[in-house]
Amino acid sequence: QVQLVESGGGLVQAGGSLRLSCAASGRTFSSYHMNWFRQAPGKEREFVAAITWTGKVIKTADSVKGRFTISKDGAKNTVNLQMNNLKPEDAAVYYCAAGYPIPRYWGKGTQVTVSS
After folding, report:
1. What are the b/e assignments for 38-55, b being 16+ CB within 10 Å?
2. What pLDDT sits at residue 30?
3. pLDDT in tens, 44-94
4. How many CB atoms lie under 10 A from the CB of residue 92?
5. 31: helix, coil or strand?
6. Cβ of 18: how many Cβ atoms within 10 Å?
């Protein structure tokens, strides 16, 4: 069993930055590839980025490539998402998920709001 808790969301102006973190617990966490997804109101959940359990980036969505960076801190059992140059269309609830390509465990999400 893996438990995931996201943090770091909030309100930011367009062009600003936020850093999301996902704190993971559970003795098998280190063996999972990790992901960030997002879901905006009225839209389907969208893949953002994925990283291997060793910290190698698997994939980043084209919509955020060059602006968002996924990373993993094995010592702290966290997966981070650095988001720069945020746009209004990045506003969504951001979810951390364990397991790739099919996530097995999900966090409850953290809200990101971007004002124009």
Report:
1. beeeeeeeebbbbbeeee
2. 75
3. 999 999 999 899 999 999 999 999 999 998 888 899 999 999 999 999 999
4. 22
5. helix
6. 21
Side-chain half-sphere of 97: how many Cα atoms within 13 Å?
20
**Angstrom distance (rounded) from CA 80 to CA 71:** 5
Q: ∠ at Cα 60 (62, 109), nearest 5°?
A: 105
20, pLDDT greater than 80: yes
Residue given tokens 């094995």 in the structure block: 74
Token pair, residue 7, equals 């943090």
Length of the chain (residues): 116
Half-sphere exposure of 11 (CA within 13 A, CB side): 2
Q: How far apart, in whole angstroms, are the C-alpha atoms of residue 20 and residue 7?
A: 6
Mean pLDDT of 11-29: 92
Half-sphere exposure of 88 (CA within 13 A, CB side): 2
